[in-house]
Amino acid sequence: MGTKHTDMGHILENSVYLELLRRGYKVHVGKVGDAEVDFIAINAEGQTYYLCLL
Fold first, then answer.
1. Radius of gyration of the chain measured on its C-alpha atoms
2. Could you point out which of 7, 19, 20, 28 has its C-alpha 20 to 30 Å from the C-alpha of 42?
3. Would you say 52 and 12 are in contact if contact means Cβ atoms under 8 Å apart?
């Protein structure tokens, strides 16, 4: 990518999002109380909340 600086956080979030979709989850973003949740992954077994920390 040459000298262009990239935001690794966005790259990681995109990778996680695509992997959740690949595994068959419906993926949403949202908040729980005042905390932002990066992903809410929903499948037949229930829902799981993901927060990406760097």
1. 13
2. 7
3. yes
pLDDT per residue, tens digit, the chain (54 aa), is: 555 666 777 888 889 999 999 999 999 988 778 877 889 999 999 999 887 765
Both tokens assigned to 35: 């905390």
Residue 50 near residue 42 (C-beta atoms within 8 A): no
Q: What are phi and psi of 37, to 5 degrees?
A: -110, 125
The model's pTM is 0.74
For residue 54 the two structure tokens come to 């760097």
The 10 Å Cβ neighbour count of residue 3 is: 4
